[in-house]
Amino acid sequence: MTQARNIAIYGKGGIGKSTTTSNISAALADMGKRVIQIGCDPKSDSTNNLRRGRSIPTVLDAIRSGKKIETEDIVHEGFGGVLCIEAGGPEPGVGCAGRGIIAAIELLKQKKIFEEFNPDVVLYDVLGDVVCGGFSVPIREGVAEQVYTVTSADFMAVYAANNLFKGIKKYANNGGALFSGIIANSVILPVHREIIDDFADKTGATIAEYVPRSETITRSELRGQTAVEYDPDSEQAEVYRNLARAILKNQEKYVPAPLEAEELKGWAESWSDRLLIKKEEETGVKTPSDALTAT
């Protein structure tokens, strides 16, 4: 049996985590790798773009049905043979959103899904707004060996990445997963890259790849596809192939150094000031002195 690479990809809601994960899965499948993608977001839409926009029944749906669960009830094939699983979430207004992850992992082990399909890579697509309860299972239980985070230059995305670093640090000494890199998403301007690079430098993190915002993604997702399937010869598809190759090659695992709350606040304010000064230099319009926090 192949020793699978178990990788968790975290990111705040709306940052492009599922888009990124699905394109990595598609790229790996294109390389001939056996891939399982497990959606760990209660929205249960992680794998939609691997299945032409079609959603699949979730593990929690199967458990709630009360019927005997067969493999085909929870494992569904997507583009390139990627095996798609959605953990699911609780019924509206009831229970913990992270419960689906715990239940899914328990059931997959019970059903010996990994032994049956013998994947090369298992990707866990995990909501990273909060790293607690069920959402921390891929880290704290050693389910994944490597963790990546998808972030942009926006403060709340960086804030979520910093919280993830705190979770990794908390569980590192108890067999928890370690960090392997930042996936910088929606990088349009040089300053976006500068901000993410500076955050990485301050926290001792590395950059796995810079992923530009692209109309190819918009068009492909409107068709319910990954960029790798929709436009395999596009620059965007090649970005994801490069990222997939980098992930396969990357054996680096470490504990990042998260910023404390006041440090992160000060770091963010310093960048706000720098951007105001940069705008002033470019436009020649003087910024009111009280708009700067550091003078």
From TrEMBL:
EC code: 1.18.6.1
GO molecular function: 4 iron, 4 sulfur cluster binding; ATP binding; metal ion binding; nitrogenase activity
SUPFAM superfamilies: P-loop containing nucleoside triphosphate hydrolases (SSF52540)
Needed cofactors: [4Fe-4S] cluster
Catalytic activity: N2 + 8 reduced [2Fe-2S]-[ferredoxin] + 16 ATP + 16 H2O = H2 + 8 oxidized [2Fe-2S]-[ferredoxin] + 2 NH4(+) + 16 ADP + 16 phosphate + 6 H(+)
Domain of life, per lineage: Archaea
Record's signal peptide: none
Keywords: 4Fe-4S, ADP-ribosylation, ATP-binding, Iron, Iron-sulfur, Metal-binding, Nitrogen fixation, Nucleotide-binding, Oxidoreductase
PTM annotation (ADP-ribosylarginine): residues: 99
Coiled-coil positions: none
PROSITE patterns xref list: NIFH_FRXC_1 (PS00746), NIFH_FRXC_2 (PS00692), NIFH_FRXC_3 (PS51026)
A Pfam family this chain is assigned to: Fer4_NifH
Chain sites annotated for binding ATP: 11-18
Modification note: The reversible ADP-ribosylation of Arg inactivates the nitrogenase reductase and regulates nitrogenase activity.
Protein function: The key enzymatic reactions in nitrogen fixation are catalyzed by the nitrogenase complex, which has 2 components: the iron protein and the molybdenum-iron protein.
Family: Belongs to the NifH/BchL/ChlL family.
Subunit structure: Homodimer.
Protein name as it appears in the record: Nitrogenase iron protein
Organism: Methanomicrobium antiquum
Gene name tied to this protein: nifH
